[in-house]
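Data deposition worksheet. Section B asks for the primary sequence of the deposited chain exactly as it was used as input, without tags or linkers unless they were present during the calculation. Section C holds the resulting structure in token form. Section D is free text for depositor observations; keep each observation to a single sentence. Incomplete worksheets are returned to the depositor.
Section A, Depositor: J.P.
Section B:
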Amino acid sequence: MCIDGQERLTFCSNDYLGLAADPRLAETLCSAAERYGVGAGAAHLINGHFHPHQRLEEELAEWLEVDAARLFSTGYMANLGVVGSLVGRGDTVIADRLNHASLVDAVQLSGAHLSRYRHNDLEDLESRLSRARGERMILTDGVFSMDGNVAPLAELVVLAERFDAWLVVDEAHAFGVLGEQGRGSFEAAGLVPGERVLRVGTLGKAFGTAGAFVAGAAEPLEVLLQRARTYLFTTAQPPAVAEASRQALSIVRDEGWRRKQLRALIAAFRKAAGQLTGVELLPSITPIQPLLVGDASRAVVLAERLADRGLLVPAIRPPTVPPGGSRLRVTFSAAHEMVDLDRLLSALRECTILK
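Section C:
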């Protein structure tokens, strides 16, 4: 990137497969804009649902081997929509404490009671499920955006079935990345989602475009169509973006080398970064590789030192992370090459040893 006239090699983007600047997506977007125009012009259920929207929903559902998928304008709106459609006053949502802010807001806006269990603590979750009233929902990220670790999905599925609860998983940082085919954390765990599982995905990360979707069984997806206020009462995603997203999905499916490149970068980084002084490498198999610093001011200083060396790795501080949890959040893309990784590691070694 060029920031204030200075070029920076970035390690903070969610463009995990390097598709955001892919010329094939740009060409598809331009061609579709010429055909369909720039904007959808209305909500989906008025006259804003174009052929590209319909085809993208069908292709996402086929790719994920589920009944249906529903498009939303953003991941934030998708989370608000799915939670608010399935639970309300008198119901209980049991949510991981480290969930994304949109999931927290979704529960608060739904009117359901929010019960937050300790991060990935199954005993705490089970205890809260046993005390919950009304309709129950387990709510979790698939990959946690600040730590990069993965939810224990196999155990969550068992608990959801035992307590007849909805299981809603935000797969924003998993789709396109995890699993041999990029189908996310369920594929990576060898699991087949049941009728009570709904997954939220974003198109603005690994897919390189914009927008989001919810995928799952036919009945709850029909409920979303009737109840999700963030679907009903907003203009649809531009059809040209939906068409570009179809192109992105084709690339995600067919170009597995991108995931192999990511895995190679992650493995090489973890081998070297574990030897850095003054920072702690958190456990993660994903492109999100946090280096825990602890003190917020020191994290800022390290980010500034990296910037002086032409690298963009922002410091993440409270309230985004808990006090004492400030970090450098390194993220990788298939667009990175090993020479980029070498440059990052060299700069990190220089910066972390400085007082």
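Section D:
The first strand starts at residue 2 and ends at 3.
The CA atoms of residues 143 and 150 lie 5 Å apart.
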